[in-house]
Design a protein that fits this description.
alpha+beta; three-stranded mixed sheet; three-stranded antiparallel sheet; 3 helices; 6 strands; 20% strand
């Protein structure tokens, strides 16, 4: 089946009824200036050289990211602690001297909660270039529970027992 030839493109014509004989109004013609950018021909460029250069640049950036001291964490900034000290929390986190790119916030959060049952919650946030922020909420003791021969412990309002730290009156 032979294809039908496409009709030649024609200008659109608009008829407007003005009730005036022999007056024809045409659509105004607007044309924008045409700008052309100089064309760059890469047919003489070997794309392998460009890709090798790109791999080298990215490799150097990756090397610098893992070796520059600018990206190593000096210590975590701890917020919200009352009875636990910043040094105790930093000892469990063990991020001092680590590359910021190897720090796993979820792992650090779980490590804190497993080592310190006296924490109700912990949130670890990592920011470039080398900042680790730890926000903790400590449990508030409401019961002083003494066991004969085994010492004593504190219990919070939710029934969670944890190690006593410091002095709390009114238990």
């Amino acid at each position: 089946m032979a294809s039908m030839p496409k009709p030649a493109e024609s200008r659109r014509r608009f008829n407007i009824a003005l009730h005036m004989p022999e007056i024809h109004i045409s659509k105004p013609k607007l044309s924008l200036p045409k700008f052309s950018l100089p064309r760059v021909h890469f047919h003489h460029t070997n794309w392998r050289y460009i890709s090798i250069g790109l791999v080298l640049v990215l490799g150097v950036l990756l090397y610098l990211a893992f070796t520059l001291p600018y990206f190593y964490v000096p210590a975590a900034t701890v917020l919200g602690n009352n009875r636990l000290t910043r040094e105790e929390i930093n000892a469990v986190l063990a991020v001092s001297g680590e590359s910021i790119f190897t720090v796993q916030p979820q792992e650090l959060q779980m490590r804190l909660l497993m080592n310190y049952p006296e924490l109700a919650s912990a949130e670890v946030q990592v920011y470039l270039p080398n900042h680790v922020y730890v926000t903790v909420v400590e449990r508030q003791p409401v019961i002083f529970w003494e066991q004969k021969g085994e010492g004593y412990t504190w219990v919070d309002a939710y029934g969670v027992a944890f190690r006593p730290r410091g002095l709390v009156t009114g238990l």
